[in-house]
Amino acid sequence: MEKIKKLWSKLWFRIVSIVLAVIILLSTVFVITLFSVWGNEIYTISSFKHLQNRNDANNEGSVYSMNLKGGFYLDKFRKQGGVSSDTELIGFITKNITKGLIKVNISESDVNCSAFTAVTPSNDVLFARNYDFDKTNVCITISNNPGKGRYKSFATVDLNYVGMDTEKDVSGLMNKLTCIAAAYTPLDGINEMGLSCGIFMSYQGEDYSLNSSGTVATDQKNAEKDNFTSTTMLRMILDYCANVDEAVELISNYNLHDSAKSSFHYMIADATGKSAILEWLPADGGTDKTDNDGSARVLKVTYNTDEMYTGLRNADDFKYQWITNFIVSGHDSYYESNDDKPGWDRYEHIYNRLSTTNGTLENEDAAMKILSEVGRRTWNGGGGVTVHSVVYNLTKKTVMWVANENYDNKSACYQYSFKTGKLTTLEK
Fold this sequence. Notes:
Layout: H1 2-46, E1 49-52, E2 63-69, H2 74-79, H3 86-96, E3 114-119, E4 125-133, E5 138-145, E6 153-158, H4 173-178, E7 188-191, E8 196-201, E9 226-229, H5 230-240, H6 244-252, E10 254-257, E11 264-269, E12 275-282, E13 297-303, E14 322-323, H7 331-334, H8 344-355, H9 364-373, E15 385-393, E16 398-403, E17 413-417, E18 423-425
Parallel strand pairs: 2-5, 9-10
Antiparallel strand pairs: 1-2, 3-4, 3-14, 4-15, 5-6, 6-7, 7-8, 8-11, 11-12, 12-13, 15-16, 16-17, 17-18
């Protein structure tokens, strides 16, 4: 009997040992599989931080930051020829980033933004930009290891673009996982080479049957070209281009399909001081009222050295450039009058401020001051909010970023440097 007990005890011990070994093995395999499939996503989600609390009484959404790990499938996106609509982009993101678990939503928007380039007395090139909208949550996205052949970048994303509720904070694992899609929806940014870019509404066309704002999205259909949407174009510029010329070359090889059923134009600038405004206009000319076929538009690039600026600046000095929300190229023939140009008053104010010093500003604070003057809370009677203001130093590769027009609140003002890789508030 005693022998049977000992044998049973040994057998039980072996069974338990085997079961435990199998559990450990399966757990190890599960963890390895989990991280091989979701490793970058897990790291990215774990980096998601709440930086700035919302203030509903002052029409302020929350501010978040997120470090993007890996290449977020952009090489695959480019290899497949991109996408030709928001619906296709949602499909790509759902399949590759959220692994089919979550369907991302890309929302429409109606934004009024401003930007300009300037130079400091020490010849640092600055790119300053306001993102004007209503209360919304935004996320600063930092990509420090995008992969071979790609550049590190800093960008800002309106989380409304990926379906986050503007009236609530981002909470829960699934919502945070959805926010990884922000990699494909930057609104402005800078890369480690000192190339910066921004997106701006252009309000083209007057076909009110298409949407409530009457704007007609660019929707090119050249079968020989690959495709991208507005925000994916900005992502590709940040990741693959070192200067304005490379960006223009890349963009020229693609069909543009504007996102969110809106029409946009774009501004890019690099550390040499070269900048350009990118617009898509009817190939055979026309006016804002007749520009109602988004498929008939072609790319028009207006450089900061172009003849249209002759007489506005001293040609021997720094060639600054500025933009708001109307078409710049041939605008005197595209619109009937200045009253028809969205953002003309902000455009004129920025020009008047820059022209007095021929585009030279003392430092980033001086550039931020101009942005504050055309902020949405106070400009032209107020209404809405400038969700973020940012000044990119393209020479030093640094960032000064302010949330919700809190220019005097150092806890709402952030700085970033590619040299350190750290995002901190100005109060630290």
